[in-house]
């Protein structure tokens, strides 16, 4: 196989969670992203999207995420349910959801925290970022639909 067509590398949690040396230069994407995200209206747009989606699917959102703290700038709305079925349904409706907390931090003795393991097994992150339109919120809520219970 050509080195350009290797396919995905195996998942490495230590690499994924690595925060890098703070003395290193920022990644080249950092300045690009900051220009797009460091705007005062971004957080308000995310809060609005969170509130609109929460109003539609809130019965499936567990505390403390069923309340939006003042000043928050959420990127996802954590929703609980039958995670594999919910992820499948969202993908089939072209909703790019996040498989939140699927892998515990490598330093975490996860066997000591069964409640956290249960949440990792059930929690999906619904997008609420600033680039969504009202029609996207409707589509996401519709894709969540019924069928998967908490």
Describe this structure in words.
The protein is mainly α and 150 residues long. The protein has a single domain (40-144), classed as Alpha-Beta Complex (Aspartate Aminotransferase, domain 1), CATH 3.90.1150.10. The chain is built from six helices and two strands. The chain has helices spanning 13-17, 28-37, 40-57, 83-92, 114-122, 134-144, and strands spanning 76-80, 123-127. A two-stranded antiparallel sheet has the order 1-2. Helix 3 runs parallel beside helix 6 (134-144). The longest helix has 18 residues, at 40-57. The radius of gyration is 18 Å and the shape is globular. The N and C termini lie far apart (44 Å).
| Uncertain residue segments | 146-150
What's the shape? globular
CATH topological fold name? Aspartate Aminotransferase, domain 1
Task: Please identify, by name, the CATH architecture.
Answer: Alpha-Beta Complex
Q: Please tell me the overall pLDDT.
A: 85
Main CATH class:
Alpha Beta
First and last CA, distance: 44 Å
Helix count equals 6
Radius of gyration over C-alpha positions, nearest whole angstrom? 18 Å
Structural classification: mainly alpha
Question: Using DSSP, what is the number of strands?
Answer: 2
**CATH homologous superfamily grouping:** Aspartate Aminotransferase, domain 1
Helix proportion: 40-55%
Order of helices and strands: HHHEHHEH
Structural domains: how many: 1
The biggest beta sheet reads: 2 strands, antiparallel
Strand content is 5-15%
Report strand order across the widest sheet.
1-2
